[in-house]
Each structure stands twice: as structure tokens, then as C-alpha cells.
Amino acid sequence: MTAAALSVECDPLRDVSHRSARAARDLADWLAWLELVPMAPRTLDAYEKYGARLLRAFPRHEFRDFSDGDLMHVLKTYPASSRLQAKAAWNNWFKWGYKSRRIPGNPVDLLPDVKYRPKRDYDVFTRVEQDALFALPSPDGELQTILHCAGLRRQEAICLTGKRVDLNRLKIIVIEGAKGGKERTVPMVFDELPAACADLLSLEGINKNDHLWATRPGGRGVVRRRDPISSTTFERWWRRCIETADVRYRNPHMARHSFVARLRERRVPIEDIKWMVGHESIATTEDTYSHPNMDELGERVRQLVGG
Predict the structure, then answer these.
(1) What is the pLDDT of residues 64-112, one digit of tens each?
(2) Residues 6+ apart with CB under 8 A from 215
(3) How many CA atoms lie within 13 A of 123 on its CB side?
(4) Is residue 49 in some structural domain?
(5) Residues 246 and 178 in one domain
(6) Could you give the number of structural domains in the chain?
(7) Are both 44 and 173 inside the same structural domain?
(8) Cβ atoms 179, 186 nearer than 8 A
């Protein structure tokens, strides 16, 4: 049983009846395999839930007995917004089963394409707002610059250490905290980034194994960088920066969207952006990040119309 499973073993509100199904051992083995990747506990928990619905629907099925028809009927029980994620989780499971020679083929390959792409208006930061965040007192200004100019996810930023900042070759290496274990290298393409990194490493005395985002127990005193900060501490830091810079609140992931928006404004090919943000499929990059800054877009159009 995985750590994710053990964490909810005593939860009376959670249905664990799937663990008595015939294919339960295959689900547990797959989750244990994912744990070694490693994969975040909340991702493991989500994957177990997707597999659990299959097992509860067909408790007498062996792993090899599942057909595309079985999967299709269970997939229909999900709302449209969740079907893509369910199919992706099942594909991962059955693909592992085929590679480990437990099943003769992957029934997910026979399912129809599932598409659900709701219209979203991403509220990216304007350059004026970014300048205000970058100008915050050290080390906040430098950390905001790194977050916005390297396209880091929250967990990637939390896990970033001094040895992953290569000022000689002007790149940031994302390994620890990378989503799905997909390591990547982010070149320092924006002028503000190398200077911010150099100032932060020098002024804060950050060594190669020190984390860039640090904890300050009690709000003052000794700064601790040996271990990564918690997501809650990161959120508190983020909100404090937003309030101090007098910038309208967005969640930290909008810094990543703003990074891509700046690349698109400079006509960087979407194929190159895909590698910089660490996507496996270029379709994900196009669907998620091919959007303008609506405030700046409106201003440009107003100028054209007025002209």
C-alpha cells in the first residue's frame, strides 16, 4: 500500500471498497511504481481515485479483463470537465500494465479522443506590475524576478537551490520539484534575470546546496535555507510581495503565464517555448499559454483605432 493510501486509511468518509477488488493489487503496484518516480502525494491520491472508480464498477475483473467498452461506460459517469484527466490517468496505468507484461494491450488506445478546453481569460501581469514586483527590497525583488523571468512552477521555485543557477552559461536547471520528474534547462533570456540571480546569490550568501526561498522562524533572526519551504510559507511570501508592491492579486502560477506571454510578444516559436516550460506535448503549450495580456492588448487596439 502506498503512502498516499496509508494517509487516508483511517478516513471514515473515504470509500476504500475498491481495495477488495480483484485488480486492486495491480493498482497498488502501479501507485508504488509511481512513488519511486517520484510523484507528488496529491497526484498519487488523484490517480488512485481514478483507478478506484474502475475497480468499484468491475470488482470481479482481473486487470487483463478490462475492455475499452468497460472504460467508456465508466468514463461517461464523469462530468465533461474531468474526463480528460480520468482518461490520462487510466492511460498511464494500462500503459504501465502493458510494459510490465501484465496485460496484452492498452484498452485506452481504443477510446475516442476526449477534448474539453473551456475558454479562459488568463489574467497575466502587465510590465508595469512586474516592474513594481521586481523593485521590491532584497531578497523579495530578486525572487520575484526569478519567478517571473524563468517560468517556474511553485514547487520548482520552492526546491530551487544555488547549484541549479548557472551564471557562467546563463541558465537555470530545473530538476527538484519538476512536474512529473521532467527535468529541463531554462536559458536566461530576459535581461533582468542574470543580474537578479547574481545579486541574490551574493547578497544573501547562498551556497550551492542552499534553497533560494528561505524560512525565517518567528519572522526574524536566522535565515534557514537547508530545507525547502512549505507551500503555505511560499503563499504567505507571495501575498506579502503583492501587497507591498500594491499589485492586484493573482495566484503565483500567473507569473509563469506572464513569462510565456512575454515570449510570445517577442515572437519566440511555440516549439521553443514548449521546451522552456517543460511540456511533453506542444498542444498543451498552445492550448494553455497561447494568450495575450488582455489589458495590454486592449491598449494596443485602442491606439490603433484612435490612430
Answers:
(1) 999 999 999 999 999 988 898 999 999 999 999 999 999 999 999 999 9
(2) 223, 224, 225, 227, 229, 233
(3) 7
(4) yes
(5) yes
(6) 2
(7) no
(8) no
- Which pLDDT belongs to residue 193? 96
- How far apart CA 211 and CA 195 sit, in angstroms, is 18
For residue 129, report the phi and psi dihedrals to the nearest 5 degrees: -65, -40
For residue 152, what are the contacts with CB-CB under 8 A and spacing of at least 6?
Answer: 146, 160, 172, 174, 186, 255, 256
Q: Which H/E stretch holds residue 235?
A: helix 231-244
Domain that holds residue 66: 3-110
The one-letter amino acid code at 101 reads: R
- pTM to 2 decimal places: 0.62
Residue 53 has pLDDT above 80, yes or no: yes
305: in domain: no
Q: Any idea which residue has 506542444 for its cell? A: 282
E strands present in 124-191:
165-166, 171-174, 184-187
25-49, pLDDT tens digit by residue? Answer: 999 999 999 988 877 788 889 999 9
The reply to whether 194 and 133 lie within a common domain is yes
- Domain match, 83 and 186 both: no
67 with 134, same domain: the answer is: no
- CA nearest to 191, candidates 158, 239, 148, 136: 148
Does 90 share its domain with 203? Answer: no
Euclidean distance between CA atoms 189 and 172, whole angstroms: 11
Q: Among residues 137, 132, 152, 138, which one has the least CA distance to residue 202?
A: 138
**How much is the pLDDT for 275?**
85
| Measured distance between the N- and C-terminal CA atoms of the chain, rounded to whole angstroms | 67
**Cα Rg, the chain, nearest whole Å:** 23
Query: pLDDT per residue over 265-277, tens digit each?
Result: 888 888 888 888 8
Q: Say whether 172 sits in a helix, a strand or coil.
A: strand
Question: What is the residue-averaged pLDDT of the chain?
Answer: 87
Question: Of 222 and 9, which is predicted with more confidence?
Answer: 222
Find the mean pLDDT for residues 196-224: 87
**Cα 197–chain centre separation:** 22
In contact, 252 and 234? CB cutoff 8 Å: yes
